[in-house]
Amino acid sequence: MRNKSHYLIVSMVMTIVSFSLFVTGVSASEMNFSVNTVIPTNQIDKEKTYFNLKMAPKQEQDVTVTLKNNTKKDITVEIGINTAKTSSNGVIAYSESNIKKDDSLKYDLSKLVKGPDSVVVQASSSKDVTFHISMPDNSFDGILLGGLTFQQKSSEVTQSKSSGTSITNEYQYAVAMLIQEKDTVVQPNLNLIKVKPDQINYRNVITAELQNDQSVLMSKVSVDAKIYSKNGKKPVYTSIKSDMQIAPNSHLIYPISLNGTSMKAGDYTLKMKVTATANKQVKKWTFTKDFTIKSKQARDLNKSDVDVKANTNNSNWLYILIGAALLIIIIILIVVIILQRKKNSNQ
Questions:
Q1: What is the β-pairing status of strands 159-162 and 250-257?
Q2: H-helix or E-strand containing 284?
Q3: What is the pLDDT of residue 267?
Q4: In which element (H, E) is residue 308 found?
């Protein structure tokens, strides 16, 4: 069986205060190629190694990334151009994902930037890859944020075998690209779109969809979420998380875990406090939203929740053991009573 594991993203990503290059769980010797940006003259901060460009409406420009092959064989590097989105963990996602684009996104960076789908880099050599940027006709405030991703073709990656399982270690670089036209400060805004029962990794959750409908990055995002039974005074579920981010014009599907318990139908109220930093200012929002979990929804989700199944199976075994113990006790009592009666009749 072929199992893609150790799929690591090696990326130039936005941290709480800035973009930086970091490598997770991998040494440089494990990488078959490296990525370097050629910083253009219209770079806003030339000390940064990601693309942070000041451009104008209708402007067209090429930017270059240099790929260096560190091996003695030719390699094929597959390339992606993506608009930044926000994962359910509150992390900026620069690579291709199944996260849907938010309705507030007016200009999709992946449509404004063109480049090759893949390139071949010859053994022990470097290759420049050019990307063409075409700005929209109309001006905009705020920022466009996305990323260029680079990954060696899967069929070329060396596989290792362990206990009959074939493991492929794949690494991906993501170079962030941030474009702006003006220095106008965009005021941040968050909306709570909807709350619903759901599952993540086959585990029951309540998800709250938070929408950042402005072209501004939010960092240091903290969420304090509590779910109450309708008119209840004590929360039945609680989730607190900090140090998250929300990409411009994107949404965060925030999960509130049920911690392995069965989902129960009924009417509920979500109360949520959110704090975020944008444009070096701290902003706060408070949301309250009623929602309903229907009986069929709860039943279907509980059937596929692996933790609920495990707890149910354990409970079933417990009931069986208790039943067996009671049966043995009853049999023993019946035998004792029969023997006692025989003894009395023989006297």
A1: unpaired
A2: strand 281-293
A3: 97
A4: helix 306-346
Q: Which CATH number fits the domain 190-304, given the four candidates 2.60.120, 2.60.40, 3.40.50, 1.25.40?
A: 2.60.40
Rounded Cα distance between 81 and 94, Å, is: 9
Predicted TM-score of the model (pTM): 0.79
Q: Per residue in 336-345, pLDDT tens? A: 777 777 766 6
Q: Which residue has tokens 């929360």?
A: 235
220-254: pLDDT as tens digits: 999 999 999 988 999 999 999 999 999 999 999 99
User: Which CATH number fits the domain 2-180, given the four candidates 3.40.50.2300, 3.10.20.90, 2.60.40.10, 3.20.20.150?
Assistant: 2.60.40.10
Of 181, 176, 250, 253, which Cα lies nearest the Cα of 217? 250
Report which DSSP code applies to 100: P
Q: Which residues contact 77 (CB under 8 A, 6 or more apart)?
A: 33, 67, 118, 119, 120, 121, 150, 151, 152, 153
Residue 207: which H helix or E strand, with range?
strand 203-212
Question: Order of strands across the sheet with 235-246?
Answer: 235-246, 218-229, 266-278, 281-293
